[in-house]
Amino acid sequence: MADLTDRLAFHPGELAAQRVAGTSALAARVRPIISDTIPRGATDFVARQRLLVLGAQDRGGRPWATALVGPEGFLSVVDEHTLRAGAQVVGTDPLAEVLRDEVDVGTLVIDLVARKRLRVNGRWRPVAGGGEVDVHQAFGNCPKYIQARVMGEGPTDPHPVVRRGAELDTAQSVLVSTADTFFIGTAAAGGVDVSHRGGNPGFVEVLSSTELRWPDYVGNAMMMTAGNIDLNPLAGLLFPDWESGATLQVTGTARVRRSAAGSSRGPGNGQETVFTIEESVWAEGAFPAGWSEPVYSRFN
How many C-beta atoms lie closer than 10 Å to residue 212's C-beta? Predict the structure, then answer.
């Protein structure tokens, strides 16, 4: 296990990605926000949230991203080193098996209405009714590119209808090509990250039934996702269907292309990610249905 200094330092992939993007100086200035403890002021924020996005690797080392949903209070800060989630993924989720054991995870506590988010990475251990994360890294992120939404009250199905495949069908392609939000899980250097991606509908392009592309927008300068991909191209994406309550999870390989200077697709930094799908999981009713219409971020 990495020592504390290693956990809080940027790994070689992140440092290289920062150099290429020209964000090294800014990343060095913001690095002190990364801590091995949950910020003292985050306790009430966490307790009010109803959505936790989680990333982990399956038995084959492939990252997936998934979501845990519950009433206010299902998330709690046990102490500054421990985040508790009082919910479990459904048995058909690609991560259901590994979450029965201790495993590295990246989590994102996100308030879409307030456009606030807290990332907590660490070691998951199962407990009765859910799990706890021993914190290795915790830090807040800026509100950029988050579309404000009020959670729908449609119930989730503990036994959703699941379809698996190796490519997107027509309905799934439409969901992706019209998405304004998705989540991406990546892994490298002994840890897992999960992060939010947002933009105006169409910011994710469906190049084919197995290939997607999206621009890399100007963010917090730390280049954690890009740095992970440079070291380990395996990644997993989660696309919620805010209206129907279905979820689309895909796992595959990603590559960051840094020859996209001058791209006009949103507030890009001249880089883009191309993703090749290896497996997809469509789960009907795995997510709350009937979310409000989005209020788009002014940064899109």
Answer: 25
291 found inside a domain:
no
Residue 246: domain span: 4-284
How far apart are alpha carbons 268 and 57 in whole angstroms? 29
298, part of any domain:
no
User: Is residue 111 assigned to a domain?
Assistant: yes
Strands 63-69 and 161-165: unpaired
Contacts of 286 (CB under 8 A, 6+ apart): 67, 90, 93, 156, 157, 160, 245, 246, 247
How many Cβ atoms from other residues are within 10 Å of residue 294's Cβ?
A: 18
Contact between 221 and 34 (Cβ < 8 Å): no
The residues with which 187 forms a beta bridge, in sequence order, are 192
**Residue 146 to residue 151: CA distance in whole angstroms:** 14
User: What is the pTM assigned to this prediction?
Assistant: 0.95
65 is a domain residue? yes
The strands making up 75-79's β-sheet, listed across from edge to edge, are 63-69, 51-57, 103-111, 116-127, 130-141, 82-85, 75-79
Model pLDDT for residues 95-148, shown as the tens digit of each residue: 999 999 999 999 999 999 999 999 999 999 999 999 999 999 999 999 999 999
Kindly report the CATH number assigned to the domain that includes residue 247.
2.30.110.10
